[in-house]
Task: structure prediction
Amino acid sequence: MLPEEQWGPVRLEPQAEAALRARYERFCIVRGGGDCLGLLEDGPFLRSDDRSTLALALAFGPVLDETYAALGRELSPKAILASVVWAVGIYLGLWLLPELTTKGAAAVLTVALVAWLGIDTVWGLMDGWAELVMRARVATTFDELREAGAGFAKVLGTDAARALILAVTALSGRTLGEVATALRSLPSYRLARVQLEGQGGFGWVLERVEQVQGVAASAEGSLAISVAPEGALAGAMMSHNSGAGSSAGGSSAKEVYRHRGGNRQVERNGERWHLPRGVSVNDIPPSDPLGDRIQVAARQVAARWGPSLYPPRVRAAIDRMLKRGLVHRAALLERQARGRWVEREVEKLFPSLDWKRRGVDVVGPAGQRYHYELLSGTQSNFELHGRRMEGVFVRMIFF
Result:
């Protein structure tokens, strides 16, 4: 029997499933035997995410074997090896699908990789990982997964593979207060700090790495690091646990992000609000019917987006990126095109509103203190718009 639904575009036949599992078990013979990577713990089949993880393990090649050999004195080196590979896969997956709850850990690891490997190498890893996932999702044989892993291995290289495993192993399971000490314990820490200093003057970030809140990537090839001001981290964590107060309507509003300028973002009943310095949660209106209608329209419009709607120039730019192997940057271009298209379509539905090409997207009606901003709901985009609109009271309409 096969699962009724498999995550990914390819559904394998029973014979292909059995052959793939048999080759995977042969791969595990010299690495502890059995299900050495823990891919079969959730069922007897290798699903799409399992195939990506296996391709990643194949990409590590000899580095994975030397890691297993180094764990020989551990009680369960096979279990540790599986956890390392899964942790690396989950972390790399956040480059494609950022998660709010693990953003901090992923951001710290990104900073560490930039310090030890350089920004160009990290961008190459982003593109290479995106391509590996795409190829693994459509792979039907072990050899195809090996080819996907080999493509990533060319980008990864032995030194980067060791650095990636070392960083993930050192930082996994650490509290935010422990990560700086863990990084300082890694080999070549001082050299990494000097290298990071030479890539935009960010060497000091390693000393305050526990306060790194996010790393945002742009299609142009740059990385922006968001660092909380001194003392802001504890306050943000405290407000996250206890709530940031109540709005005028009496409902709880939770602070989810505080910017260096004192402006912050809060959530209330599924709404996201940007509050400049001097504006409190009590200034949030108890109800916002207009904003609710714009929010519903934005999500409905976004659901209609597809490749057939790419403007010719965007399609050409994406094709150029893909031909160069820059898969991650192609994905960024696609998201930017999606955002522009959604905004134009929503504007058609609300022609009486005051839409702007600069500043906020929609100026609130006369007498209304707050405005509206449409954006894709990734954490990096929330942070980017919050920095850009530091002094503006805005409801953030996301899709």
